[in-house]
Amino acid sequence: MIELFNITKKYGNKTAINNISLFVRSGEVLGLLGPNGAGKSTTMRIIAGYLLPTSGSVKVAGFDVVKEPVTAKRHIGYLPENPPLYKDMTVCDYINFAAELRGLKGKDKAHHVNRVIEEVGIPDVKKRLIGHLSRGYRQRVGLAQALVANPQVLILDEPTVGLDPQQITEIRQLIKELSGKRTVILSSHILPEVSSLCHRVAIINKGNLIVENTPQNLGKSL
Ligand code: ADP
Ligand code: ADP
Predict the structure, then answer these.
(1) What pLDDT does residue 89 have?
(2) What integer pLDDT is reported at residue 32 of this predicted model?
(3) Which of 72, 135, 141, 163 has its CA 20 to 30 A from that of 66?
(4) Ligand closest to CA 82
């Protein structure tokens, strides 16, 4: 479902990621684990079609993300580390706006907006301003914008960073529910997070893929 072949990204003469290949099967949840600056966000942005690689190719749902970004992006939901949430918009208006950006209209739009509000558990706050929500709820709104067109593939960049312990537990539970019917890549710098949520873990450091294995077998391959 997600195929990265020899992806390299350079910013000027700095190599952010170096010759990474990764394959994620349909329905699988892959964790991208690594310290700050390892290249996680760069990798996620490239898969989501928001950043061009310097070399290599990437396919999502069979579509080449570099050559056919518009088609590929229809299958991709992306939650950046700091999603642009508009503080002065209500939750409902913002999700409608996100739906329009993805080309949804009329009854179809209304259906998907209502569906996603239920799916991420925010019906109680849908009339509130985003700026008045807790970080945990804001993260749910971020997930809602990623999911509004019901994509098969979900890309979550550090989805629990900056949340308090209670919010972390709730967002992890929600991610578990959302990943049941989708293919997911999520990044984290916390091993227990990827171990509890992911079928497989890929560790990157300084732009290089170090090891890739199931959480159970990770220790053996290090
Ligand atoms: P992570 O998400 O694992 O923290 P990033 O992908 O953000 O890592 O960054 C990987 C490396 O690339 C870091 O050294 C970072 O400073 C660098 N980098 C990221 N974005 C840019 C950019 N736009 N310009 C220059 N360097 C960048
Ligand atoms: P993240 O780990 O989520 O990428 P960063 O703080 O590393 O967060 O990056 C925030 C923004 O700044 C991103 O758009 C990234 O591409 C850019 N950036 C990161 N490092 C550098 C850098 N060394 N030079 C220029 N831009 C950078």
Answers:
(1) 96
(2) 97
(3) 141
(4) 2
Q: What is the pLDDT of residues 93-131, one digit of tens each?
A: 999 999 999 999 999 999 999 999 999 999 999 999 999
Ligand 1 atom, smallest distance to 12 CA: 25
Atom of ligand 2 nearest to the CA of 42: 4
Q: Which of 71, 16, 63 is nearest to 44 (CA)?
A: 16
- Ligand 1 centroid, distance to 15 Cα (angstroms): 9
Ligand nearest to the CA of 10: 1
Average pLDDT, the chain: 95
With a 6 A CB cut-off, is 64 part of the ligand 2 pocket? no
d(CA 66, CA 50): 9
Residue 41 CB–ligand 2 contact under 6 Å: yes
ipTM: 0.72
